[in-house]
Amino acid sequence: MKTTSTYDAQGFTLIEIAIVLVIVGLLLGGLLMPLASQVEAQRRTETEKTLKEINEALIGYAMVNGQLPCPADPAIATGAVNAGVLRATCTGASALGVVPWVTLGVSEVDAWGRRFTYRVTPSFSDLSAATVTPPVGCVPTSATTSFALCSDGDMDIRVGAVPAALVAAAIPAVIVSHGKNGRGAYLPTGIRMTCPVAPPPVPPLPPPPPPDELENTDCPGNTAIFISHTPTTASAPSGEFDDLVTWIVPSVLKGRMVAAGRLP
User: Fold this and answer.
1) Contact between 193 and 233 (Cβ < 8 Å)
2) Fewer CB within 10 A of the end CB, N or C, for the chain?
């Protein structure tokens, strides 16, 4: 008859269980990392799709109304009066806000649940014939159209802070998703997330460049310059960058306005 030894009756030892747990942990970690990357990639893809829809909605609004819409007030909470509704006028600081999602009938937030920053060139969003549209000497050709074929926007898209190379110039409107980190974005509550912060200087070295994400905000940033490039990590010279930026291409906007009979 076979007898059971003392060792056999003990089952797994603590060391063996620990080894198994370590192996399981490593396997789970290996699976979770790719899964997290897939989730973030999907969110970026969803947000890029929404940005395209907003771009089309802005152009469609201009074709119907003869002007681009003003931004919505970013500090109004969802559901409150005027939330998501375009401002009556947008000059100076009011030319920057969030996409007027109610007016356009588009999504309020990106895939991370933050509102889209939106800035428009004021002369592209009013119907005042007295407003000089850049360049000087170019004025609206119709009382029902805010801009002319010779009109220029007042924003530039660059791959980094000035004097970095230009991606596009004389842009009439820009839309920004502030990405996964959300720095500088507004929440549906109307509260703003933490703004990008430039790293402190380290004497005797010169001050480091401002983070690229700072240019895509007004906290503070140069709101006439927007940055668009591939994502970078915090170790990059200009800091972490995960913003998604799109803009109204002047030739596309004007071509669609001509096709709609809004411009000659």
Assistant:
1) no
2) N
The CA dihedral of 11, 16, 17, 22, to the nearest 10 degrees, is -160
Using omega within 30 degrees of 0 as the cis cutoff, is the peptide bond preceding 199 cis?
no
Location of structure tokens 């000089």: 132
Picking from 132, 104, 130, the residue whose alpha carbon sits closest to that of residue 118 is: 104
Q: Where are the beta strands (DSSP E) in 213-254?
A: 225-227, 244-247
Q: Are 74 and 119 in contact (CB under 8 A)?
A: no
Q: How many CA atoms lie within 13 A of 18 on its CB side?
A: 3
* Token pair 């306005």 in the structure block, residue: 257
Question: Would you give the distance in Å from CA 34 to the centre of its chain?
Answer: 25
Evaluate whether 219 touches 185 at the Cβ level (below 8 Å): no
Per residue in 200-239, pLDDT tens? 777 777 777 778 999 999 888 778 999 999 999 888 888 8
Q: What is the DSSP string of 154-206?
A: SEEEESSSTTSPEEEEEESEEEEE-TTT-TTPBPTTSPBPPPP-PPPP-TTSP
Q: Residue 195 CB: number of other CB atoms within 10 A?
A: 16
Q: Is the pTM of this model over 0.70?
A: yes
Report helix, strand or coil for 118.
strand
Cβ within 8 Å of residue 232, ≥6 positions away: 212, 238, 239, 240, 241
142-180: pLDDT as tens digits? 778 899 999 999 999 999 887 889 999 999 999 999 999
CA distance 135 to 104: 29
